[in-house]
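hiii so um. not sure if this is the right channel but i have a protein structure encoded as tokens and i wanna go backwards to a sequence. like what aa goes where. can anyone help
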């Protein structure tokens, strides 16, 4: 049994939308999903794409995904990767699939010369917030520093907590920004 991480393919907007809906249900936000297959298809497969998606397969069966986009640091003058969503179906958790997704994203950052991998985790979702932070530091920090003051603070004291001003308290998140130094 093994995991493979691959880019989403044209014609898989329905699969991606199903993962988005499963994630929303897990986060108790199912009623807030407005996206449809057409919107997902446009975002992922437009020329140029507005977002990207990796599918995690366990023995050929899609069991998880990561939806991400390229961002930009004006201070560094370079791109980075913002992880919008990561999800592994409950029946397949504990098999290293989330770790494999994060590893793939970190490898992509290094290969592209991007300076950071960034994402947020809902504050009530504690297992990922702790283990994900450690994994990101390990993947991005192998022979490299987890550099900015923000990242050093996150690494030493835990993630920075913030609440979006326009969102209710349940949307409080843990933010993590790992600077990737080449």
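sure thing!! here u go:
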């Amino acid at each position: 049994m093994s995991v493979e991480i691959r880019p989403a393919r044209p014609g898989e907007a329905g699969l991606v939308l199903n993962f988005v809906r499963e994630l929303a249900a897990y986060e108790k936000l199912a009623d807030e999903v407005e996206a449809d297959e057409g919107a997902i298809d446009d975002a992922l497969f437009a020329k140029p794409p507005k977002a990207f998606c990796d599918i995690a397969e366990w023995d050929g069966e899609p069991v998880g995904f990561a939806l991400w986009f390229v961002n930009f640091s004006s201070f560094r003058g370079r791109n980075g990767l913002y992880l919008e969503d990561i999800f592994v179906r409950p029946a397949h958790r504990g098999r290293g699939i989330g770790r494999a997704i994060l590893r793939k994203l970190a490898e992509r950052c290094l290969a592209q010369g991007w300076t950071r991998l960034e994402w947020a985790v809902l504050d009530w979702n504690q297992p990922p917030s702790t283990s994900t932070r450690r994994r990101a530091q390990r993947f991005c920090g192998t022979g490299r520093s987890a550099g900015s003051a923000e990242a050093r603070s996150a690494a030493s004291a835990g993630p920075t907590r913030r609440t979006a001003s326009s969102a209710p308290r349940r949307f409080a998140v843990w933010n993590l920004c790992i600077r990737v130094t080449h």
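oh and The chain has one domain: 3-179.
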